[in-house]
Amino acid sequence: xxxxxxxxxxxxxxxxxxxxxxxxxxxxxxxxxxxxxxxxxxxxxxxxxxxxxxxxxxxxxxxxxxxxxxxxxxxxxxxxxxxxxxxxxxxxxxxxxxxxxxxxxxxxxxxxxxxxx
Length: 117
What we know:
Blueprint: H1 9-25, E1 30-35, E2 40-44, E3 46-47, E4 52-53, H2 55-65, E5 71-77, H3 85-95, E6 100-104, E7 110-115
Parallel strand pairs: 5-6
Antiparallel strand pairs: 1-2, 1-5, 3-4, 6-7
Helix pairs in contact: 2-3
Organism: Streptomyces muensis
GO molecular function: catalytic activity
Protein name: Cytidine deaminase
């Protein structure tokens, strides 16, 4: 587990935003990504009959739709232990293989950091 106080303030911010998206929308996951200009994009899990997207893939899609050309970091708040390969692939497609993905529990404590690689 990572001490959230040791996180870069901008990384702590995206974890907080991801956590609030999850709580506000009452969904399984919340996610936030930060682009190369410092803008953030926040999303929750999408669960429609015709469309199902993880929070992280939704946040990446929002960044792309808003004109982002790269990512600096991503965060997901989830009860799951890790980040599925499809989610890491979406981050990698926009941010590159070294883009950090912070995984936090529902309490906001960062459990791990992985690369999009």
